[in-house]
Amino acid sequence: MNADVQLVVSADGSHTLTSNKFGVTYHSIHGSIDESIHVFLAGGLDYFKNKKKPIAIFEMGFGTGLNVWLSAIYAERNQLEINMESIECFPVNDQVISALNYTSELPCKPKEATYFKTIHQNPWGQPNEVNPFFSFRKHQANIMDHSFNRKYDIIFFDAFAPNTQPELWEKPLHKKLFDALNPGGILVTYCAKGIFKRVLKDIGYSLDKLRGPGKKHEMTRAIKSSIL
């Protein structure tokens, strides 16, 4: 294991990583897989499942690739066409990725388990069809410098917590993300801090108050008006 991260077993048995640089975990210690399914699949993809096809997703924080892998499985199981992009400034190395136990902790078919390796082996910046319903591209870049060349229906905002990287939770970046959403699009995140929700409201979102994953009382789904 490298010196940048430490492997930790979360409450649902799945791994998370602790970043030694930032002093925080990549996923909830109360359950990595449970958190991702609750926040990003149930809170994000389920919102659009019966509304729009295909769906375009942008993820802030590729990290371990867990959200992308779960989305690839979701797309195929629901026969829902999804095109997803993800960005990461500090990629996790291959040795750490190979030690993660997601494919053994989530009940899945052998073919679905192979998608995790496919996602990580795909070169940065190159498009890849993970399965007939899910295409993916990952960017190794700083979100502050990234230029969007399309619009999205969903933003998975999975950055480190506000007290760790406050600039990622402030108005300049979130106005940029808001502008990258289609009308009627949503941003979903585990964070429900009042100061962050005020930023979202000031930009122009309406907010849904949703129950959070595990022991969290609340999470955030922000909706961009379909009438602009």
Structural overview:
With 228 residues, the chain is of the alpha/beta class. The chain has helices spanning 32-48, 66-78, 94-99, 102-105, 110-121, 171-179, 194-203; strands at 5-9, 15-19, 24-25, 55-60, 82-88, 128-131, 134-140, 152-157, 181-189, 206-210, 219-223. Helix 1 crosses helix 2 (66-78), helix 2 crosses helix 5 and helix 6 (171-179) packs across helix 7 (194-203). It is globular, with a radius of gyration of 16 Å.
Largest sheet: 8 strands, mixed
Kindly state the percentage of residues in helix: 25-40%
Q: Approximately how much beta-strand content do the residues carry?
A: 25-35%
Tell me the series of helices and strands, N- to C-terminal.
Answer: EEEHEHEHHHEEEHEHEE
Distance between the termini: 49 Å
> What is the CA-atom radius of gyration, in angstroms?
16 Å
pLDDT average, as an integer? 94
DSSP E strands, number: 11
Low-confidence stretches: none
Strand order within the widest beta sheet: 6-7-5-4-8-9-11-10
Give the CA-based shape: globular
